[in-house]
């Protein structure tokens, strides 16, 4: 006995994915309501892979849910973006293998991954305003010493995603990167970034070992994040979302971009190893 063809539903359509819509609504609202006093600011949307922990403790967050869940902003927890070294090694091998297979005939995606290995140094300075807590970051190429960018990052909003069946959780962050002049004086602290950067279509996946130096102390962190590569595309599609004068393709482009963004974050989380 075989299963006959089935309709998507009794209405013949597939119900809207509430998870994707919630993420898309959050990002759309946050970027469209961004502070107007920073017209040169670049919108950054990224998903960091990490672990949600109890606030004030080291235990991983526990909630009475079985599957991936978006948390309300008032849920008491903290997000730890640092991975264990073995997780970093695991993702390094996974992404390198994907880089090789993506360029071979018959790969699931027609677009191969592009790869670059970056060595960067960030120096952090106090804000130009004594009332502001935003720090100024100067990023240099470690090999040449050339300044790549000088900016301050303004945090606009976060959305935490709890994944109880996986070895990692994730956080979506929306920020504004505002270019500023190079600050005077000495840096408060520095961090060195050994970054493996993989680009696929409209997304960048960064696997980074961060060595932070502050007050004579050294700390090594391992981070993994997915970022939307072109802020100008993000804003252009966001502006057309829900526009009755735009075509259906233009109106749905933003949600399609966010759907692929979420899928990339999910794929990484579902291929993570337990943090231990």
UniProtKB/TrEMBL annotation:
Coiled coil: none
Catalyses which reaction(s): a 5'-end triphospho-ribonucleoside in mRNA + H2O = a 5'-end diphospho-ribonucleoside in mRNA + phosphate + H(+)
Cell location: Nucleus
Cofactor(s) it depends on: Mg(2+)
CDD domains in alphabetical order: CYTH-like_mRNA_RTPase
mRNA triphosphatase Cet1-like domain mapped to chain residues: 17-228
One of the record's GO cellular component terms: mRNA capping enzyme complex
One GO molecular-function entry: mRNA 5'-triphosphate monophosphatase activity
Pfam families reported for this sequence: mRNA_triPase (PF02940)
GO biological process: 7-methylguanosine mRNA capping
EC number: 3.6.1.74
Domain of life: Eukaryota
Keyword Hydrolase: yes
Keywords carried by this UniProt record: Hydrolase, mRNA capping, mRNA processing, Nucleus
The protein's assembly and partners: Heterodimer. The mRNA-capping enzyme is composed of two separate chains alpha and beta, respectively a mRNA guanylyltransferase and an mRNA 5'-triphosphate monophosphatase.
Role: First step of mRNA capping. Converts the 5'-triphosphate end of a nascent mRNA chain into a diphosphate end.
Family of this protein: Belongs to the fungal TPase family.
Annotated protein name in UniProt: mRNA-capping enzyme subunit beta
Species, as recorded: Tetrapyrgos nigripes
């Amino acid at each position: 006995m075989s299963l006959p063809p089935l309709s998507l539903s009794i209405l013949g359509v597939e119900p809207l994915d509430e998870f994707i819509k919630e993420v898309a609504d959050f990002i759309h609202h946050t970027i469209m309501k961004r502070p107007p006093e920073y017209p040169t600011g670049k919108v950054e949307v990224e998903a960091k892979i990490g672990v949600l922990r109890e606030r004030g403790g080291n235990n991983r967050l526990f909630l009475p849910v079985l599957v991936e869940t978006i948390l309300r902003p008032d849920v008491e927890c903290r997000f730890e973006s640092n991975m264990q070294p073995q997780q970093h090694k695991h993702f390094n091998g996974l992404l390198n293998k994907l880089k090789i297979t993506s360029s071979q005939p018959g790969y699931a995606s027609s677009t191969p991954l592009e790869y670059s290995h970056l060595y960067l140094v960030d120096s952090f300075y106090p804000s130009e305003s004594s009332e502001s807590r935003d720090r100024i970051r100067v990023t240099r190429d470690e090999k040449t010493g050339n300044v790549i960018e000088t900016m301050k990052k303004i945090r606009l909003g976060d959305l935490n995603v709890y994944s109880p069946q996986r070895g990692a959780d994730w956080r979506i962050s929306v920020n504004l990167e505002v270019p500023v002049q190079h600050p005077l004086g000495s840096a408060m602290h520095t961090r060195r970034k050994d970054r493996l950067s993989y680009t696929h279509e409209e997304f960048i996946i960064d696997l980074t070992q961060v060595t932070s130096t502050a007050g004579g102390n050294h700390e090594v962190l391992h981070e993994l994040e997915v970022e939307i590569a072109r802020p100008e595309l993000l804003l252009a599609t966001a502006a057309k979302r829900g526009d009755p004068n735009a075509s259906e393709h233009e109106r749905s482009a933003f949600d399609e971009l966010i759907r692929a963004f979420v899928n990339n974050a999910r794929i990484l989380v579902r291929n993570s190893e337990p943090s231990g």
